[in-house]
Amino acid sequence: MSLSTSITEELLFSYFNGRATLLQKQWVEKWKEDPANEEIFYATLHKWENEHLQYQVDVNKAIEKFNVGLSANRPSAGRSSVGQKEKDADSSKWKPWLIAASLLIILGVNSYLFRDTIFYKAYSTSFGKTGLINLADGSKVVLNANSSLKIPRFGFFNNARKVYLKGEACFSVVHTPDNSRFVVQTDSMFNIEVLGTEFSVFTRPRQTKIMLLKGKIKVHYSPEKKQASVLTLSPGDLLTYSKKQEKPHIMKVGNPESSVAWMQNRFVFNDTSLSEILNIINENYGLTVELRGKDLIDKTLSGSFKAKSGDEFLESISQVLDLNMIRQNDHVILFNN
What average pLDDT does range 272-286 have in this prediction? Predict the structure, then answer.
């Protein structure tokens, strides 16, 4: 049996937590010497670290100990004896140190809890709004509505430019003289690595989509209970994945620019189901749409239109599909004429 087929994610997890046998350790160390396996090794390591945090803070317990320490040093009511006064005098010498130590503990806990705020700067967009972010390396990111991007507050380090995305964004990444990697990390099982290129990423709970416009990208795919892998995309490739799929699907798209038409407030549909359009309305504008009519869910839409707001989007949909609309705050009802 070859090493490439025997090294599984389960075995790598055992290697990381120190439970692998001596023979298994030798297998893994021999296997990871091959440059072709390096990406899989580190992608699996990243997944294992996320699932096995090395430090868990019990804030309630820390505060309780702090309060108990303070209570123990409070003077008792009434008159005290000479011996008690001596004890109080001795203990008073330690009070400043105890308080200082307690404060340091609390500061340490707070630093851990708020480390993201300390080390990262977050950008976000509200419903119906997009935003342009100029990164320190010259790269540009356009955030779609209801999305957020987290970047290192003190710049990129360790020969890697890593950002964290929730929602949808279009990236225009510059190539640096030192060939520094640019990594987009998502909450899903996909991370994107590039040197310099243009691409869009859609990462929401229902689906992940990665569209490559220019250049070349590597997509690190780390599914649960399966071996991690690296997928390579070429210009025009669209990667899609949802929980209903067994694995990611890659297809060639004839007009890849349509995937980022939202940057000009334009929406392009190609035989798109009404249920998919309702997801877009909910994710981009925060509106919940109710369909009244058995055949409505089977309707599809092809074409494009511009919309700068949720109202304009709904108006266009209603006209094209010949539907009536009733809006009650953030709840919309669509029904046949």
Answer: 93
